[in-house]
Design brief:
By secondary structure, the protein is mainly beta. 13% of the residues lie in helices and 56% in strands. It has one domain (32-144): Beta Barrel (Lipocalin), CATH 2.40.128.
Length: 146
């Protein structure tokens, strides 16, 4: 009788724990950091601008690799984000393509220094053909950080 009561009490506690545990799409600390950005060409291989969204600050982007195969440019960039207000500072290396017919930019990489080191990064952007600046989205997959 005692073991049946103990089992019933344990089952009731487990049921209550399941019912009161919030169900969410993911841990908020693991949610991607979403940033918008706008940058302009300031030198032949350097862009500067700002970012905003889940944090805000300045961005510097440097071209470190380029291979042209027709209208598709295979590129590698180093991104440096600095934010004196929220403290987000990081360096990321990303690579991917720029479609010179459409201006679409698709890049993937990893944070190599600073906050979220080891996290995957994704850039989806649009090249501005008139001045070779660009604007778009920069996402940091915080759940993949080391």
């Amino acid at each position: 009788m005692k073991s049946k009561t103990l089992f019933t009490a344990s089952a009731a506690l487990l049921t209550m724990a399941i019912l009161v545990t919030p169900v969410s799409a993911g841990n908020s600390t693991m949610a991607p950091i979403r940033l918008g950005f706008d940058k302009e060409l300031v030198d032949s291989t350097v862009w500067e601008g700002t970012y905003w969204g889940d944090a805000s600050g300045d961005v510097t982007v440097t071209l470190v690799g380029l291979r042209i195969t027709g209208p598709i440019w295979h590129v590698e960039f180093e991104w440096v984000l600095t934010d004196d207000v929220d403290g987000l500072t990081l360096r990321a290396v990303v690579s991917g393509i720029i479609n010179m017919n459409t201006g679409h930019i698709a890049l993937n990489g990893v944070v190599t220094e600073g906050h979220y080191c080891g996290a995957q990064v994704h850039v989806d952007a649009q090249l501005e053909f008139d001045d070779y600046g660009s604007h778009g989205d920069f996402r940091i997959m915080t759940g993949s950080a080391a």
